[in-house]
Inverse folding.
């Protein structure tokens, strides 16, 4: 354990970890992750969050960017002033970030109580290891009525693709137990999953891979797949909260998140 509190300025502290989600080692300067914008996620020092932990932002001087996914290249959804108190609820292993006042290299990202992810390199938590539970534990219990099909020990998708990312989310949410042994083009994933013994639904489901046909929700000719984090009802319909790679306007290897309205023709490959 390396404590950050009380380390004299200028002392170099490093911690290199292997990232499950890292497509390549990503080295960013402090300025690439921290920039201006409206504050998001800051809480009064006195606030105590049930199930979370209050920590201090420490960038050195700049605001800390809040990202939609555990990657410095994912969409920026807010920012937090340096030295603010924030509540983190869980952690995820994402793309390696290097920088910050402690010169850390880490793939550890913390999810804010208010939503979004921030790099652990910019937080004073008292440790370079996780201080909150992994985010995937929220969905690790088996769901009744969902079949268990053929499993794989390695990700069957090609690195950096939407299928690889969806399978990685599956693996993490399963508690790092297994991948589904399915393949083919994204548009054919539902039929491949059925053939492999997994449950496939036509109604919106969370804890699932959504299969998006070509032309629907800006999907390309090969189709698109993404992970469904949550399903919510709104006045105008049902919405899906997606985590994905290679989404609209995003290149290969880039994590992002978005809310989309559920459409006819979508299929959902269900994680038990």
């Amino acid at each position: 354990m390396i404590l950050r509190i009380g380390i004299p300025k200028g002392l170099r502290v490093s911690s290199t970890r292997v990232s499950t989600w890292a497509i390549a080692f990503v080295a960013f300067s402090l300025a690439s992750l921290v920039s201006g914008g409206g504050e998001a996620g800051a809480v009064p020092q006195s606030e105590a969050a049930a199930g979370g932990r209050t920590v201090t932002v420490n960038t050195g001087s700049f605001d800390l960017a809040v990202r939609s996914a555990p990657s410095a290249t994912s969409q920026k959804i807010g920012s937090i002033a340096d030295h603010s108190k924030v509540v983190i609820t869980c952690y995820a292993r994402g793309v390696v970030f290097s920088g910050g006042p402690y010169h850390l290299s880490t793939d550890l990202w913390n999810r804010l109580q208010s939503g979004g992810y921030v790099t652990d390199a910019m937080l004073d938590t008292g440790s370079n290891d996780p201080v909150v539970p992994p985010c995937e534990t929220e969905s690790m219990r088996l769901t009744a009525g969902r079949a268990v099909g053929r499993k794989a020990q390695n990700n069957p998708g090609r690195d950096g693709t939407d299928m690889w990312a969806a399978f990685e989310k599956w693996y993490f949410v399963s508690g790092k137990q297994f991948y589904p042994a399915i393949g083919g083009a994204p548009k054919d994933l539902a039929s491949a999953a059925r053939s492999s013994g997994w449950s496939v639904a036509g109604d919106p489901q969370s804890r699932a891979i959504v299969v998006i046909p070509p032309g629907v929700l800006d999907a390309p000719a090969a189709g698109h797949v993404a992970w469904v984090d949550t399903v919510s009802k709104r006045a105008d319909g049902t919405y899906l909260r997606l985590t994905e790679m290679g989404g609209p306007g995003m290149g290969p290897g880039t994590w992002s998140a978005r809310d989309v309205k559920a459409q006819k023709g979508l299929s959902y490959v269900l994680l038990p």
